[in-house]
Amino acid sequence: MDIRDTRRENLRQLVNEFGTKAGFGRHYNVDPTYISQILNGHRNLGEKAARKLEATMGLPKLALDNLPEKGSSEGLSSGQVNVVPGPNIHRSVPLISWIQAGGWSEIIDNFQPGEAEEWRETTARVGPHAFALRVEGDSMTAPSGVSIPEGSVVIIDPDAAYINGSIVVAKLVDTQEATLKKLIIDGPNRYLKPLNPAYSPIAINGNCRIIGVAKKVELDL
């Protein structure tokens, strides 16, 4: 198969995960007409365009050239056929510091790959501005139910909408670092609530900026 056809078919599989070209376009801020032209064969997906799309989707370089085609069983042996494939890696996001997170909206456009502690591959469906944070302290460690223990890596999406009960990264105006808490909206009142009951909720008003919404928690063993 021609490399351009391979890229096209791999892109088609990625688009199909969103159901429609429009959904794919909205998620990655890409013109769905452009995607449609590629998939219909009216526009070639050349080297430069492929690399740009990979960067937009947070995929590794050459991913569109090398992703296995639909239905491929490459890499499976007879003793592995009963193994259920894991979820697809959706994108790579930078693991940054809590200070960087506090000013993320200001630095994101000029953020360089080397400024991240590391890049994390994640299955979370997040937008192009997503990042990761490593949890410090035990304020989000709950005795039961949802718990985000120290050392966990949380995937944050600044483009996601928050609601009452969302786990958010927020920054108070009088602090340099961001913080991870559960957002409580009670009529006109808003609070940042730790999951650990040993810590008190923080009342917020105009002194707080919501930076992003937590979409996934990952724990390295």
From TrEMBL:
Origin: domain of life: Bacteria
- Pfam families to which the protein is assigned, alphabetical: Peptidase_S24
What InterPro entries would the database entry show? Answer: Lambda_DNA-bd_dom_sf, LexA-like, LexA/Signal_pep-like_sf, LexA_repressor, Peptidase_S24_S26A/B/C
Recorded GO terms, molecular function? DNA binding
The Peptidase S24/S26A/S26B/S26C domain is annotated at 94-214
PANTHER family noted in UniProt: LEXA REPRESSOR, LEXA REPRESSOR-RELATED
Write down what this protein is called.
LexA family transcriptional regulator
Organism, scientific name:
Microbulbifer okhotskensis
